Amino acid sequence: xxxxxxxxxxxxxxxxxxxxxxxxxxxxxxxxxxxxxxxxxxxxxxxxxxxxxxxxxxxxxxxxxxxxxxxxxxxxxxxxxxxxxxxxxxxxxxxxxxxxxxxxxxxxxxxxxxxxxxxxxxxxxxxxxxxxxxxxxxxxxxxxxxxxxxxxxxxxxxxxxxxxxxxxxxxxxxxxxxxxxxxxxxxxxxxxxxxxxxxxxxxxxxxxxxxxxxxxxxxxxxxxxxxxxxxxxxxxxxxxxxxxxxxxxxxxxxxxxxxxxxxxxxxxxxxxxxxxxxxxxxxxxxxxxxxxxxxxxxxxxxxxxxxxxxxxxxxxxxxxxxxxxxxxxxxxxxxxxxxxxxxxxxxxxxxxxxxxxxxxxxxxxxxxxxxxxxxxxxxxxxxxxxxxxxxxxxxxxxxxxxxxxxxxxxxxxxxxxxxxxxxxxxxxxxxxxxxxxxxxxxxxxxxxxxxxxxxxxxxxxxxxxxxxxxxxxxxxxxxxxxxxxxxxxxxxxxxxxxxxxxxxx
Length: 505
What we know:
The radius of gyration is 24 Å and the shape is globular. The chain contains 13 helices and 20 strands. The N and C termini lie far apart (62 Å). The strands form five sheets. The chain has an eight-stranded parallel barrel. Strands 13-14-15-20-17-18 form a six-stranded antiparallel sheet. Strands 3-4 form a two-stranded antiparallel ribbon. By secondary structure, the chain is α/β, with parallel strands linked by helices. The chain folds into two domains: 45-417, TIM Barrel (Alpha-Beta Barrel), CATH 3.20.20; 428-502, Golgi alpha-mannosidase II (Immunoglobulin-like), CATH 2.60.40. Helix 5 (212-229) packs parallel to helix 6 (244-258) and helix 11 (346-358) packs parallel to helix 12 (402-417). One of its GO terms (biological process) is carbohydrate metabolic process. Residues 52-415 form the Glycosyl hydrolase family 13 catalytic domain. Residues 1-17 form the signal peptide. GO terms for molecular function: hydrolase activity, acting on glycosyl bonds; metal ion binding.
């Protein structure tokens, strides 16, 4: 029975609707919803600065929930938890972060797998074993509510990562009589070969979400978490591995249960504007990750390809369907980090950060990259948050670059002060050679910002007429300080450096 028919079959009280299977007996009783937690004042999602945290690797605030193990091993639980994140929210506030995305917190499987060449546990939260229960290794429901409350008090929205496609290796859902027929698995030999809806991603048990009772069970569980915690939206894992009908019903139910502003950010592996538009056209999600940004930006900064081609790419991102967003990242838990790919070159990495924070879309900062966490290829891209001399485990003593963090603070403050950078149109002004100059213009506010990046090894100079939207013959360097003025814009940019120009106040 097609899930797309579920509104008619299951939600309208039709007598012919298939009965929903009961949840597993161990998780049947979910806590009552808590009172709603006031959200931050309305702010366009286009203006948000999103910070992504792997909870277990950020900060350990409650050692009592730690599990024994070698916390230096890449696949073990390292002790980070919600309480630690609560205690370090001011770290995010002082950076300028306005939205927080956390990895899943439902109960995960207790065992480990060895297919990676080392024992690998579910420290990341993506191997669920019980969708109705909090994993005690991450904290308690009350701590999740407190995190949301304290984040909201600081003007920070919270996105909870949720998984509908699969459960964890060896999950009890495969053993319980009520649910064992809900999953495809390699053990049963019934995984599909379509590399999409019916495949078992990474060998994980795949939920038969085409069955209405399975889909509704998962929806009920995740919507209940949102109601009880007060989160502002979901980050949706493995978007392409569920049917469009599922996501359309998901959107309908989240809006009905959680309000029209509940935000949905989807992960379509390898996605960019064209492929994400398949999920935008029927309004299944609000935003999706632009996987092409990292590669395009790093290639440009390393001198690969013409500047005009990079400008065309950035302009193309502005052709998004109205009301929807791209979220662009330099590093993540699933790809090698930008600093690692740049061979540790912090100068070019800072230029990458300039481009991320001066172009359209919702920038996602991966925890620790603002202090030069090396990242590396998997599993090194999920190592501990560096805290330097601060006694914050598990990353106490790991070196951090405070000067780089100050650069991030400056860039974020500039972005937050200038809607042209987050919501404006994009136009290349100089796209020859290694110097790239572009203009951001937001007509509603009249805000205009000019950005110049020199990826070359020698100073670059350009003479340009003042752009018509500028409305002045002078400019202030928002990033480095100083002032430019004259009948034309005479701009010099030092090697491997950037300038961000705004109209004088």
